[in-house]
Design the sequence.
């Protein structure tokens, strides 16, 4: 499957991703890897989850060890065309009236999305580490 994000208006958003402190070096070095998906749920699909609101992602920062410093990622995500996700999706569904082209990502709410799920590693770029406390 080939996904082209170079259209006239690719939808890129700056989103947030909270994770355990131990995952930070690997994400910084290699980016996000969808093979590690599902640790904190797959309600909207089996991809990597990003939130519009930093406050939401902060809940997932060091969830298993609160003694580590609180750090989260600000991420550039190519969300492209999206649809409402559901549990069990291993990839986004096909676009209406398309035999081969699929949506690029899934969301919690199509009209006002606050959670985005990316299914292709090339959709994401960890731009910043945010230290807070």
Sequence:
């Amino acid at each position: 499957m080939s996904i082209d994000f170079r259209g006239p208006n690719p939808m890129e958003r700056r989103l947030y991703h909270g994770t355990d402190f131990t995952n930070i070096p690997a994400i910084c070095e290699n980016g996000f890897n969808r093979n590690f998906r599902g640790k904190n749920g797959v309600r909207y699909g089996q991809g990597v989850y990003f939130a519009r609101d930093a406050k939401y992602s902060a809940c997932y920062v060091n969830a298993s060890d609160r003694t580590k410093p609180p750090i989260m990622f600000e991420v550039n995500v190519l969300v492209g065309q999206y649809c409402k996700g559901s549990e069990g999706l291993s990839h986004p569904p096909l676009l209406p009236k398309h035999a081969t082209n699929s949506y690029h990502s899934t969301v919690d709410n199509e009209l006002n999305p606050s959670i985005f799920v990316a299914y292709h590693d090339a959709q994401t770029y960890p731009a910043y580490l945010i230290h807070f406390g």
